[in-house]
Design goal:
The protein is mainly α. The protein has one domain (2-427). It is 64% helix and 1% strand. The protein contains 19 helices and two strands. The chain has helices spanning 2-8, 11-30, 44-55, 65-68, 71-86, 88-99, 105-115, 123-149, 155-170, 191-206, 208-220, 225-249, 261-273, 290-302, 315-329, 344-371, 377-388, 403-418, 420-427; strands at 336-337, 340-341. Strands 1-2 form a two-stranded antiparallel ribbon. The chain is globular and about 70 Å long.
């Protein structure tokens, strides 16, 4: 019966229901007395918020993770981060492998939708690679972080901390166990922590399709147009963001000024990489200048790349829109990248994704100005973009949100992780193709 019901649902609906089910289960587990150190469990609203943040790999928290949760609660959060980051269909596929079950065409279509892959061909093989890549990268990152944390704490705790933060940052979640909402500010100029986490965040953010192509490059000697766009745009955003943050925060006594030159460079790069939906921070976000905060909002809105553990409108969407602007300014009809023309359907989709994202962010921010009276507008705007892009950076507003504000941000995180297009398709009526075209019309623009 359940299999028949699943078969009747299209992939977007399955993804929405799947993520929703994981969030509900996580909420129930986090509300148990065994999940919190005070033995009372979280309230249902706070449990729902935390479970959504973990499953949607965001990192916004209404209570400090390290101070509030027992090891059981932290493992529940870590499990939701892992499932949410890779996608529940990847874990369903892993279970099917273990049980020796065949992956049906319907399930392959759902996997394709969840990974944002262009074709259904080879998706099962890609999932196998994803699981292997994830295990290798998280284990390597966990070992490096454990060795560094062992200098500051007992070996057992260092290993636990090392692997927790490796999984959290590779999946671009941003949850940490440092306590007192400090984030990783104690390691702002530590090269091992910074370089390891920057590498984990970057690998999780470029997308598994790109990662797979880089892995196969030695034998194929080929990089697709998609991967070229992802790598080039990501490189420009990270380097450009780091340079601007270095300049803007260089003399800020609350952020970069007290650090050594190496610390300033590491801090600038980390704060440039983490808005790509990671959410962990080595500088206090609330102490950054307003100019830097606007820059981070811009980076958060773009986010990571398609098929990754991150959110945002995605690097390729941003690149296509910029390419369209460039083509219009130059008077050209075609939008081209690396000698290839973009199909108009891709341009329309990019525009649709961006406008839906903007409308959602504007609407949520406007409502928050009503539900959170007295709060700074920039703080509300920053929180909304962070939630939509599943980043998790905050200026300190999250714990102070009203109940309605928490519900609104919870929905925003969910919409951002599922994707505005997928969510729209899931709630819309079944799409039909038009079998006719209207006469062309002309209007003046600009």
């Amino acid at each position: 019966m359940r299999r028949k019901m699943l078969f009747k649902l299209d992939p977007p609906k399955v993804l929405v229901l799947g993520f929703g089910s994981i969030i509900l289960l996580g909420s129930l587990l986090l509300s148990l007395p065994a999940a919190t150190t005070d033995g009372k469990g979280l309230s249902l609203l706070d449990a729902l918020f935390t479970a959504t943040s973990a499953t949607c790999v965001t990192g916004l928290v209404v209570v400090d993770t390290g101070d509030t949760f027992t090891q059981f609660g932290e493992i529940v959060i870590l499990s939701m981060i892992q499932i949410g980051g890779l996608g529940f269909m990847s874990f369903a596929t892993l279970l099917a492998f273990i049980l020796g079950k065949r992956i049906s065409l319907k399930e392959r279509l759902i996997i394709q939708e969840s990974l944002n892959n262009a074709t259904v061909e080879g998706v099962v093989r890609l999932v196998k690679r994803i699981l292997i890549f994830t295990a290798v990268i998280e284990i390597a990152g966990g070992i490096l972080l454990s060795l560094r944390f062992a200098q500051d704490m007992a070996a057992g705790k260092a290993i636990y901390f090392g692997f927790f933060h490796a999984v959290s940052n590779f999946n671009n979640a941003g949850f940490d166990l440092m306590g007192e909402f400090r984030g990783l500010t104690a390691y702002a100029d530590d090269p091992v922590i910074n370089i390891t986490l920057i590498s984990l965040i970057s690998l999780g953010g470029i997308g598994f399709i790109v990662m797979n192509e880089l892995f196969e490059y030695k034998s194929t000697k080929r990089i697709s147009l998609h991967s070229k766009m992802v790598l080039s745009v990501s490189g420009v955003l990270v380097l450009g963001g780091a340079l601007l943050i270095f300049i803007l925060e260089y003399n800020n006594p609350a952020t970069l000024k007290p650090l050594s030159m190496a610390g300033k460079i590491l801090g600038s790069f980390y704060q440039s990489v983490t808005p790509r939906t990671a959410g962990s921070n080595t500088l206090n976000i609330g102490d950054l200048t307003q100019t830097t905060l606007f820059l981070i909002i811009f980076l958060m809105f773009i986010g990571a790349s398609p098929g990754s553990t991150g959110g945002g409108i995605k690097t390729t969407t941003f690149a296509i829109l910029m390419g369209a602007v460039k083509a219009q300014i130059r008077g050209r009809e075609d939008v081209t990248f690396f000698g290839r023309r973009m199909d108009y359907t891709i341009i329309y989709k990019s525009l649709t994704v961006t406008l839906i994202a903007l409308f959602l962010i504007i609407f949520v921010t406007m409502v928050l100005t009503i539900t959170e009276p007295g709060k700074d507008f920039l703080m509300l705007f920053f929180e909304t973009v962070s939630a939509f892009a599943t980043v998790g950076l905050s200026m300190g507003l999250t714990p102070e949100l009203s109940p309605f504000g928490k519900i609104l941000i919870t929905f925003t995180m969910f919409a951002g992780r599922i994707g505005p297009m997928t969510l729209a398709f899931a709630v819309a009526k079944k799409r039909k193709e038009d079998h006719y075209r209207y006469p062309a019309g002309k209007v003046m623009i600009g």
